[in-house]
Amino acid sequence: MLVCLFSHSDYAIRPAVIFNICLLFFIYSPFTIHAQDPVRNETAELLSALNASTADRAVENLYLHTDRSFYSSEDTLWFKAYLLDAALLIPSRKSGLLYVELVTDSNIVIKRTMLPVAGGIAFGQVVLSQKDVPPGGYYIRAYTNWMRNFDERTVFKKHIFVNKAADKEWLISYDARRTREAGAERIRMGLKFNRFDGIAVGAREMQIRLTDGKRNWLKNNVQTGVDGLLDINFELPQKADLQKLAIDIMDMRKGEGNRRLQVPVLLGRTEYTDIQFMPEGGTLIANLPSRVAFKALSEDGLATDVEGSIYDSKLQEVVRFKSGHKGMGYLNLVPQPGETYSARILLADGSYKTYSLPAVENEGVTLKVNNRFDSDSCEVIVRSTPGLFPADRTCFLIGQVRGLACYGAAFKFRDGSAKIKIGKDILPNGIAQFTLLGPDKNVLCERLIFIDHNERLRIKVSSNKTEYYQRDSISLDIEVTDKNGTPVQASFSMAVTDDGQIRTDSLKEETLPGRMLLSGALKGHIEDPGYYVDAAADAQKWQHLDQLLMTQGWTKYEWNAVSKNGGILPYEAEEEFLVKGKVTNMFNKPVAGSGVGLLSKKPLIVSETTTNEQGLFSFKGIVPADTAVFFIQSKNKKGKSFNVGIEINEFQPPVFAAAGYRTAPWFINMDTLLLSSVKRQIALKSVQQKVTGGNVLNEVTVTAKKIVRDSKNLNGPGEANVIIGSEDLEQRGEMTLGDLLEKKVPGFYVRFTKSGGQEYRIRDMTAHLIIDGVDTEFFKSEEEPLYLYLKKYFDYYTAADIKGIEVMFSTRYSGRYFSTFIHDPNAKITDNAFIEVTTYGGKGPFLKKTPGTYVYRPMPFTMPKQFYSPRYTPGSIADMTDIRTTLYWAPNIITNKEGRARVSFYTSDNPGTYSLVMEGCDMNGSVGLKRERVIVKRNGLLNGL
Fold it and tell me: Residue 368: phi, psi to the nearest 5?
C-alpha cells in the first residue's frame, strides 16, 4: 500500500483546496488509509468500488503470436495464445477454452476450432489447404466466451495473406480514374495482367462481374490485349455497397482450373475524406483553453494526410492545422461563447471541403494532461466555468491503469482551476485513464495517457558460433532478466523465418507488449502498431502515441461497471469443455433425477450422471478429439430410455463486425519487396522440383467434380466412387434412402447369409452407413442384428431429408473410413464399403422415433502438433530439397530459475538472412519482445547473429 499526500499549495494555478490519495495495487485486495478525513475515506471507497468491479468482471486480454503473416497454399499457420487478466497481466482465472477462427476479408468464417487453455497459455495450428483456404486475404480471430460480454475490441484479430507461388499465377496492377458524364459518375479501371515469370496474360477471354456481394451490377465477356491490358469502364452504381464493390474476374480458357480472382474497387475519392475533431477531455467549453485532437481517414478507412484552417462563424481564420503521423495531430483553441467553428481543408484535386467542430458549451469543465517525453511526472490541469461548483463541494480525480484504480485525488474548486502533479512511479505500465468526477460522482471528463517505465523483460540471445552455413546447427542461449538484472522465469514463443521468401515488416506487426499495454484497450484499427513499441525512447514517436490516445483512446473499462457490480453477464466463463444440457418431459417441464448416459468412441468415454431439480446435467473432464461425436441418452430407474426430450447447450457462434477498412489482395499492385520474395519462392520451388524429379509429372486437366455441400466426407467433398447430388434427389421426394441406394448405386443389394440372416452389400463388400460424419453402428447394441439395425435408417430417411450421398468402395477412398471406423484387427479393407450421407439437419443419425436420445457433434477440438524441424549429420550436402519458410517454431520455451534456456535447430538449403522473433511473459505482469537476425552464407564467409 502506498499513500501519498500532496500539498495543495504546490500545484494550484489559482487558490484551490486539493486532497490527494494515491493507491497502487498489485493484487485485488482491500486497502487501508492512514487518515480519518471523511473526504479521503470517500475517495478510498470510490477506488475500492472500482477495483471490486474490475475484479468481478476480470476482463481478459488475448494475443496470438503466429510464426509469420504471409503464407503459401498448403502451409501450416503455427500460433501460441497468451490469455491474461487485462488488469494484472497474470494468467486469466476465468477461461479454460479458446475459440480460433479463420475469416475471409469478406467476414465469412471458413474455419473454427476450440483449444484448451492452461495457465493462460494455449498453442495450436491451422492447416491452410488450398481446398479450404484458397489464395487471398484472411483474418485469424480469437476470443473466449467470457470476452463476448465486453466490447468487440477485446477480440484478437490479425490479418494474414495466403498466396499460391507459381510461375503461371497472375499478378494484377491497376489504377482507377473517375470521370463525370451527363451528371453520372463513371469509373475507368486500367488493369494489366502478368504471370510471375513476366509473361503477359494476353489475348485471354475473361468474364467480368461488377458486384458488391449481394448483386451483380455489370456482367460482360471481355478479352485482354496482347500486352495483358484490359480497360473497364462503368457507371458507379450509387445503390451498391461501395465499401464492398469489386470486379470479379473469371478466366474462360478451358483447362485453366476455373481461375477466378476478385479485384476490389478502391475508389479513394478525396471528397469522401472524413475528419473527426476530439476536444481533450471531451467537450469544448466557452472561454476555456482546449487542445483539440483530430484524425483524418480516406474513403477506404485508412489514414490520410490533411491540412487546413479552423474558421469561426464570421469566416475569420482562427488557427491553421496540419496532420502528422497517420493523419493525426492536434491544435489549440480558446472557444468563444455562442460561436460555431468549422474546418476547411484543401483536397488533392484543388477543391475544398468543410467539416463542423463539436458545439461549444457555455459552461462545463476541461481536463488537460501534459505527459511530457522523458519526464518522471505528468501534469493534470482542471478548469471550470465560474460558479459551476460551490466552494464547499468536492470533486474527484481518479486514475486507472488497465482498469485498476491506483490513484485518487479529492479537491474543491474555489477560483475555477487547479493543477495537480502526479509522479509516474505510482502508476504501472500501460494506458492510464484519468477521469474527473463531479460531487455527484458523475463523469465529467476523461483523458488517456501512456505510462512506460521501461520494465519490459530484457532478453539476450547468444549464438554458439560466429558463422553459419547451409544445413548447419544453430544453438542459441537465452537469458532473461528484469530491468534490474534479476533472472526471470518466463514462458516464450520463438519463430525463425527465411527473409528471402517472406516479407517481414515490424512496423505493421502487433506484438505481445503492444497488445497487452496499448492496442488491446483502444478502439478502431491501429495502423502500424509496431511503430509505437519503442515510443518511450523517441520524442517524436511519444508525441504521436499521445495523439493516438487522444483520437482512438476509449478504454473497455466502463464507469457504469460500478453500478453493475454483482450483476449477471450474459456469457459464462468456460473453465473447461463441458457437455451440458437439460431433460424435459412432453410438457417441456424439467425432469429431476433422470439418469443421463454419455457414450463416445473417439475419445473412448462411457459416463453417467443425474439431472438436478431443474432438469440440468453436465459431464466434466472431457477432452474431445478433433472429430468428437457424443451419444447422449436419458434413462429411467430401470436403465431404459423413456419418452423425454434432451436439449444440449450447443455453442452459438458470435457474429462480429467486418473490418472498417479494405485491403488489396496480395497479388494486386504488389510492392517490390513482396514481389521479390514471391519470385524467390518460385525459383526455389523450381530448383527443388528439378532435384526431386517433380518436373517429370505431365500437366493434367482438372475437371469439375460433383460436390455435396457441407459433406463430412473424410476424403473431402466429391472424393468418392459414386456421388448422388442434390440435383439427383430433387425429384425423388419421399423415396427412402434404401430405395435410392438400390436405384442409384451399382452393386448395392441385400444378401442372405448362410445363417439365415440378411446383410447390406456393395459389390462383394459389407456396407457401413455414416450419417453426417457419424458412424451409425456406434449406437447399435450387441444383440441387434446389423441388417435390422441399418434398415431402420434406410427406411427412415427420405430424399427430402438428404443433401447428398457419397459411396466409397475402392481402397483409394475407403482407406480413411476403414482406419477410422473399423476396429476389428482381423478385418480387411477390401471387404468393407462405406456410404456417407449428408442430411439437411446435419446432426447425425438422429431418429425422431427414438425417445430420449441426442447425437452431439461439438466444434472441432484442436490439440497442438509438433513442429517438424529436420536434423542433419555433419557434412550433409545442401541439395535444395530443404527450402523451409519457417525454419523453427518453438511455442513453449521456459526459462529456469537463472532465467536461462537453450534452443537449437538447423539452417535450410537456402542461404541468406533469417529473422528471429521471440515473445513472452513471466505471468506476473511483465512482457518481453526480442528481434534478431541470423545470416547464413553459402561459401563460409563471415556471418553471425
Answer: -115, 135
Contact (Cβ atoms closer than 8 angstroms) between residue 532 and residue 541: yes
CA–CA distance, 775 with 766 (Å, rounded to integer): 14
Contact 773, 712 (CB under 8 A): yes
Distances (CA, A) of 275 to 260, 311, 314: 37, 15, 22
| Cell (9 digits) for 657 | 463486425
Q: For the whole prediction, is pTM greater than 0.85? A: no
What are the cell numbers at 735?
423415396
Radius of gyration of the chain (CA): 33
Is the CB of residue 623 less than 8 Å from the CB of residue 116? yes
Is residue 346 a contact partner of residue 269, using CB atoms and an 8 Å limit?
Answer: no
Q: What is the pLDDT of residues 346-361, one digit of tens each?
A: 887 788 999 999 999 9
Burial pattern 631-646, b for ≥16 Cβ within 10 A else e, equals bbbbbeeeeeebebbb
Which is nearest to 518 in space by CA: 158, 160, 153, 159?
A: 153
Give every CB contact of residue 809 below 8 A, 6+ residues apart in sequence. Answer: 721, 747, 762, 763, 765, 833, 834
CA distances from 194 to 215, 407, 625, 669 (A): 29, 61, 45, 11
367 forms beta bridges with: 382
Q: What CA–CA distance (Å, rounded) separates 245 from 94?
A: 41
| Strand ranges inside 538-629, DSSP E | 579-584, 595-601, 604-610, 616-619
Bridge partners (DSSP) of residue 178 are 187
* Average pLDDT value for residue range 788-817: 90
Q: How far apart are the first and last CA of the chain?
A: 44
Q: Is the pLDDT of residue 751 over 90?
A: no
Packed helices 786-796 and 737-744: angle between N→C axes, nearest 10 degrees: 90
Residue 46: enclosing H or E segment and its boundaries?
helix 38-57
Cell 561459401, residue located = 939
Max CA distance (Å), the chain: 107
Grid cell locating 291: 487542445
Return all residues near 22 (Cβ < 8 A) that are at least 6 apart: 2, 3, 4, 406, 407, 408, 422, 426
Calpha distance 137→128 (Å, rounded): 12
Q: Return d(Cα 568, Cα 336) in angstroms, integer.
A: 46
Residue 696 DSSP code: G
Chain centroid, CA 623 distance in Å: 24
Summarised one tens digit per residue, pLDDT across range 240-285 is: 888 888 898 988 887 665 578 888 888 878 888 999 999 999 999 9
* Cis amide bond preceding 891, omega within 30: no
Cα torsion 409, 411, 413, 419: sign: negative
Half-sphere exposure of 363 (CA within 13 A, CB side): 6
**CB 98 within 8 Å of CB 121:** no
**pLDDT tens for each residue of 5-53:** 332 323 233 334 444 444 443 333 333 333 347 778 888 888 888 888 8
The 3-class secondary structure across 281-332, one letter per residue, is: ECCEECCCCEEEEEEEECCCCCECCCEEEEECCCCCEEEEEECCHHHEEEEE
Cα(913)–Cα(677) distance, rounded to whole angstroms?
A: 12
**Grid cell for residue 49:** 468500488
Contacts by 528-531 with C-beta closer than 8 Å and gap 24+? 528/326, 530/505, 530/506, 531/325, 531/507
